[in-house]
Design goal:
The complex is a heterodimer of chains A (114) and B (112).
Chain A: E1 4-7, E2 10-13, E3 19-25, E4 31-38, E5 42-51, E6 54-57, E7 64-66, E8 76-78, E9 87-94, E10 103-105, E11 109-113
Parallel strand pairs in A: 2-11
Antiparallel strand pairs in A: 1-3, 3-8, 4-5, 4-9, 5-6, 7-8, 9-10, 9-11
Chain B: E1 4-5, E2 10-14, E3 19-25, E4 32-38, E5 44-51, E6 56-59, E7 62-67, E8 72-77, E9 86-93, E10 100-102, E11 106-111
Parallel strand pairs in B: 2-11
Antiparallel strand pairs in B: 1-3, 3-8, 4-5, 4-9, 6-7, 7-8, 9-10, 9-11
The chains are: A mainly beta (114), B mainly beta (112).
Chain lengths: 114, 112
């Protein structure tokens, strides 16, 4: 089955530790995105990548980093510089970088930092 | 800066009722608009995508309309069922890079 997988579903970390969230897609999509969802705030874009080895900051990139070494993978690292890392993180992809196409989302990773 | 508003934040209706969920956006220069469904603790499921040149899209009991000039979209759900209970999010694409701007969602509860 084609789709987007995110792992793990739940992640717990101590404050001050970096943590990496996984996102893999087998849809052959060029573009991939990371969003953060907080209660009552909707989804906000962290980073996006339209092609391998290239990515751009979204609206709330501070304290986060990404890489795009393979078309299928777009891992997100939440660094210790992120002030409020506890949130629900969603990864998405779309078919091509050449236009605004439908975005498909993964199941999400809930990160709790204490 | 594009802003997307969904009011009310929550809605409760009896089973069988036809209902309309509203979405408004401030910048009418959009490429498309998507309606998503989100169940508690889950990811987003795309329901309907309306391109800027289209007026509406239909899928089963769902019908979404788009009035770009007035910055509005509606999601019509016919004959609502308890299984329709979820949060419905509206999002618009304003740039060619497919960047989505989301509303905060409407949490729908359909009572048996």
């Amino acid at each position: 089955d084609g789709g987007i997988t995110q792992s793990p579903k739940y992640l717990f970390r101590k404050e001050g530790q970096n943590v990496t969230l996984s996102c893999e897609q087998n849809l052959n999509h060029d573009a991939m995105y990371w969003y953060r969802q907080d209660p009552g705030q909707g989804l906000r874009l962290i980073y996006y990548s339209q092609i391998v080895n290239d990515f751009q900051k979204g609206d709330i990139a501070e304290g986060y980093s990404v890489s795009r070494e393979k078309k299928e993978s777009f891992p997100l690292t939440v660094t210790s510089a992120q002030k409020n890392p506890t949130a629900f993180y969603l990864c998405a992809s779309s078919i091509t970088r050449d236009g605004p196409y439908e975005q498909y989302f993964g199941p999400g990773t809930r990160l709790t930092v204490t | 800066k594009q802003e997307v508003t969904q009011i009310p934040a929550a809605l409760s209706v009896p089973e069988g009722e036809n209902l309309v969920l509203n979405c408004s956006f401030t910048d009418s220069a959009i490429y498309n608009l998507q309606w998503f469904r989100q169940d508690p603790g889950k990811g987003l499921t795309s329901l309907l995508l309306i391109q800027s040149s289209q007026r509406e899209q239909t899928s089963g009991r769902l019908n979404a309309s788009l009035d770009k000039s007035s910055g509005r979209s509606t999601l019509y759900i016919a004959a609502s069922q308890p299984g329709d209970s979820a949060t419905y999010l509206c999002a618009v694409t304003t740039g060619a890079n497919s960047k989505l701007t989301f509303g905060k969602g409407i949490t729908l509860s359909v009572r048996p």
